[in-house]
Structure formats: structure tokens, C-alpha cells
Design a protein that fits this description.
The chain has helices at residues 30-36, 62-71, 73-88, 98-102, 108-117, 126-140, 238-256, 274-290, 317-335, 353-386, 404-416, 422-428, 456-494; strands at residues 3-5, 8-14, 17-21, 27-29, 45-46, 55-56, 91-94, 142-149, 155-161, 166-169, 175-179, 182-188, 194-195, 202-203, 215-220, 262-268, 305-311, 393-396. With 495 residues, it is an alpha+beta fold. Helix 3 runs antiparallel to helix 6, helix 3 runs parallel beside helix 9 (317-335) and helix 7 (238-256) runs antiparallel to helix 9. It is flat, with a radius of gyration of 40 Å. Residues 1-28 and 37-49 have low confidence and may be disordered.
């Protein structure tokens, strides 16, 4: 028995499990798809019973996507480590003007920005607030920042908004948040018209200042399925995570059953009484699980036989380990996170240059793009447009993947070859500068073999001195010879 379902070809039963045959010919458990599928007509703009205003539904159910953070260990670790590496290490402000940078502590704009980022709302600094937004961004593909302004239309506070509670309204010019049966409306960032946060209507004025809606900055991961909502990049790994969850359930049931395998009760020449049938089921389903020392006694009529056959007695531990490893690798690949970043040590891998290359790829292809995206929001939308401050750039600190030994060798060559001064290197390392450290040195002396530690100047002086000594010795020798010749001439004259 089968029936058509949308673009999928067949819905039917396979071994007692309802499945769907997709247009690619794959059999998929219908429960998996139902859990995330959003039932919609041709238009995504529908009115659901649990939402009073007309909204645009996201392509997937956001709470169920976020729930995987609580269900899968590797998935949760990947999201949290990316959040820490991209957002949680720290931040700083940078100026293109060297003089302004040197006197930053006296710059009013610098002081104003650092003061604001240290407390963007009564309970959080910029890092703590962005970490929540980032987790939503990675968990369900969408992140929201609420923006509050003062009476001078300058930003005075930033808040995280739970992405699972936010929807675009059907008229596409505002957003609405639902918590329980309470609704609050927001206008997109930069919208100058006044929106009543309670009614969702754009108005000329509001009776109370509190009735004017705040703005919302939307940060999402691009999806071809929707221009209003994003889809997380890990979504293709949902089947691996689902399989991992079912594997845990299987193993848990096995241990709760005290390792007793499933049994088939086989009757030969016996018609089982309904009461006995119920008693056997009760024994295996409840009584036996409560203790591993229970006994079931059955009487059999003459000529009949009752025996029990264990089903699937082998736990297939090796297969489970391989299945677990495959699922883990699938989740890591979907997140593009190196195994060691989530605490997984791959045996037999020494790392070396391969590990360094992996770190660099992870930093360049995963962390840096996310930092760039979130930093653009802070710099362009909040600092430049929202606070009307120019000249300062917000940057996130990078994870440290530097090899200190290699760097020290590079710095040593830079000093000896006159490429950098000591103070330039100390400044790059965050160390205090010292007087006289701006001089550039060049190691140019060639030392003769056998004379260790002698400079070129010392060698030249030594050679000159040796020549002078030699000349003096020759002159002294000549004088001595002259004196001896004079004495001989005097002696000959006397005779």
C-alpha cells in the first residue's frame, strides 16, 4: 500500500517502519522529516493557530534545530568551540592613524566606545551578548540583536533576542516576537518610521515613549530556501546525529534490560491462552527489567512444546564503534572543526606540519569569516551609523596558533639582518619599549678561523699592531747590527 506525497515518490512501510522514497531514490524515516518539516502551501506566508499575526514561516522549525545542542555531544561542542574561538577571546579598537592610536587613552571617541562595549546592557558586555547571538546563529542559522536608542537617536543599549521566538511579519516590513501568548513588534534596523510595539502598526506618534518599537539587527546564514531566514551549515549532518541518538537509546535499553536479549516465544502443538500470553509479555517487558534474577514458570500440555529463542544476541560492538566514528566525523566535517578542538585525540596522528596547516585552514575558512561578519555589524551599523563615530575599528582577538619557537627564530633573523629594530619586535609582542631600542643592527663581521670572538675592527688593529711590532723589531735589529759593525771598525783602527 503506498500513496504519493509531494515531490517524493512513495510513502509506505519497510519492516514495520513508515518510510519515504525521495526523488533521489533514498529511503528516509518519515519521523525524521516530520520533525523538522514546516507544512506550507505555495506561499510561505501563512497564518498558524499559535501566531495571531500573519507571519512568514522559516523553512525549518527553529526550536527543534536549537534542541540538537542539548542532544548531541559533538554538535554542541563544535558550536561552543566556534563561539569561543570567534567571539569569546576578546576584542580591541584600532585606529588607522598612528598618532591617534598612540594617544588613544585621551581620545573621547575611544573612551566612549570602550565604556559602551564594557556594558552594552545592564547585565552584559559586548562579548557576553554576542556569544548568545552567535549560538543562535550557529544553532538555527539566525541571530538577532535588539537595538535601543536614547532621545538623541543614538544607540544606548544592545540586547540578544532568542531566535526561536522571532518571526518576520507577513507584510515584510517588521518582525514580531512571541513568548507564550504575548507579542512584541520590532522594526528592521535603520527604519526611521515610528512603529507601535504593541499593535504592530506604523504611526505618526505614540502616547508613551515606551510604546515606540526598538530596532532589530538580523544576522543569518544564507539559504536558497528563504530570503528572510537562514539555515545552519551543519543541517546535512542531522541524519548522523539522529542515528547517534538512536544508538545511545539502543545501548541504554540493552543495559536497562540487564543485557538480556530480545526473545521469541515459539509454541509447538499448543494453543496459548490469552492470559498466559499476557503474562509472558508482562514478564519480558516489565518484570525482567526490574531485576536480573526473576524466574518465569510455564506448564505445557502433554505433546506440546514451548521454547525461547534469543534474537540478535550479538551486541556487534565493533560495528557500533565504527558507526559512532562515522557519525562523529560527519558532524565534525559539517562544522569544519578539527577533532582536537572538541577534545578528540586521533590515535596514530603525530600532527607536525599537518596540524599547523589544519589550524590555519580552520582559522581562515571558519573563524575569520565569522569574525568579519559580526565585526561588520558592530563597525558599520552600530559604531558608524548608530553612534555616528568614525576613525575607530572594532576587531576580535584571534585564537593563538603561533609557534613561539619558529617566531623567535624569525625575529632573530630580522634583528641580525637589519629588517626590524628591537622596539618594533617588542611592540608587536605587546612588550614595553626601551630607550635606544629603535636602532637597526646588521651583523657584518667575518671572523678568521681560529680567532673566536674577534670583530673586523679588532682584527685590523691587531694586524696593524703586529706590523708595527715587526717594524720595530727590524729597526732594533738593524741598530744592533750597526753598533756591532762600528765596534769592529774601532777595534781595527786601534790595532
Amino acid at each position: 500500500m503506498s500513496r504519493r506525497r509531494g515531490k517524493d515518490n512513495i510513502v509506505g512501510d519497510k519492516d514495520g517502519v513508515q518510510v519515504i522514497m525521495t526523488d533521489k531514490g533514498d529511503l528516509v524515516n518519515v519521523d525524521i522529516l516530520k520533525k523538522y518539516e514546516v507544512k506550507a502551501n505555495t506561499s510561505q506566508q501563512i497564518e498558524r493557530e499559535d501566531w495571531k499575526p500573519k507571519i512568514i514561516e522559516p523553512p525549518y522549525r527553529l526550536p527543534q534545530l536549537m534542541q540538537w545542542i542539548d542532544l548531541d555531544t559533538i554538535h554542541s561542542s563544535c558550536i561552543r568551540v566556534k563561539m569561543q574561538d570567534a567571539i569569546g577571546i576578546g576584542y580591541y579598537l584600532e585606529s588607522d592613524d598612528a598618532e591617534t592610536m598612540a594617544l588613544k587613552d585621551k581620545d573621547k571617541n575611544y573612551q566612549s566606545l570602550m565604556s559602551f562595549f564594557s556594558l552594552v546592557n545592564p547585565n552584559e558586555d559586548i562579548s557576553a551578548m554576542l556569544e548568545k547571538v552567535f549560538m543562535d546563529y550557529e544553532g538555527c542559522g539566525n541571530g538577532y540583536i535588539e537595538v535601543s536608542r536614547d532621545i538623541h537617536d543614538k544607540i544606548n543599549a544592545l540586547y540578544h533576542v532568542n531566535a526561536t521566538t522571532m518571526r518576520w511579519c507577513g507584510d515584510k516590513d517588521k518582525l514580531v516576537q512571541r513568548v507564550g501568548m504575548n507579542y512584541v513588534y520590532f522594526k528592521p534596523f535603520g527604519e526611521e518610521k515610528i512603529l507601535n510595539r504593541k499593535t504592530g502598526n506604523y504611526v505618526q506618534s505614540v502616547r508613551q515613549v515606551e510604546d515606540a518599537a526598538n530596532e532589530v539587527i538580523v544576522i543569518n546564514q544564507y539559504s536558497w530556501k528563504s530570503i528572510y531566514y537562514g539555515i545552519p551549515e551543519w543541517l546535512p549532518a542531522v541524519y548522523a546525529m539522529f542515528g547517534e541518538m538512536k544508538e545511545r537509546e539502543y545501548n541504554l535499553d540493552f543495559f536497562l534490560n540487564f543485557g538480556i536479549p530480545a526473545y521469541a516465544v515459539i509454541l509447538e502443538g499448543v494453543t496459548l491462552n490469552p492470559d498466559v500470553d499476557e503474562e509472558i509479555k508482562k514478564f519480558f517487558e516489565t518484570t525482567l527489567k526490574e531485576s536480573n534474577y526473576k524466574t518465569l514458570t510455564l506448564s505445557c500440555p502433554k505433546g506440546g512444546k514451548i521454547h525461547f529463542e534469543p534474537l540478535n544476541i550479538d551486541t556487534k560492538e565493533a560495528s557500533f564503534r565504527m558507526y559512532h566514528a562515522d557519525n562523529t566525523n560527519t558532524v565534525l566535517a559539517a562544522h569544519r572543526v578539527p577533532p582536537y578542538r572538541v577534545g578528540i585525540v586521533v590515535e596514530g596522528k603525530l600532527g607536525g606540519s599537518v596540524s599547523k596547516d589544519t589550524d590555519r585552514i580552520y582559522l581562515d575558512s571558519v573563524i575569520n569569516p565569522r569574525q568579519k561578519k559580526f565585526a561588520w555589524v558592530i563597525n558599520e551599523l552600530i559604531i558608524n551609523r548608530g553612534m555616528d563615530i568614525q576613525g575607530w575599528t572594532f576587531r576580535f582577538e584571534d585564537i593563538n596558533i603561533v609557534d613561539e619557537k619558529v617566531n623567535s627564530e624569525i625575529y632573530d633573523r630580522y634583528i641580525k639582518n637589519g629588517i626590524m629594530s628591537p622596539n618594533e619586535i617588542r611592540n608587536g609582542l605587546g612588550l614595553p619599549l626601551y630607550e635606544g631600542g629603535d636602532a637597526v643592527y646588521v651583523a657584518s663581521s667575518l671572523i678568521p678561523i681560529g680567532i673566536v670572538g674577534e670583530t673586523a675592527e679588532q682584527a685590523s688593529a691587531r694586524k696593524k699592531n703586529e706590523e708595527e711590532v715587526k717594524d720595530e723589531e727590524e729597526d732594533a735589529a738593524k741598530e744592533e747590527v750597526g753598533e756591532e759593525n762600528g765596534k769592529e771598525e774601532e777595534e781595527e783602527a786601534e790595532e
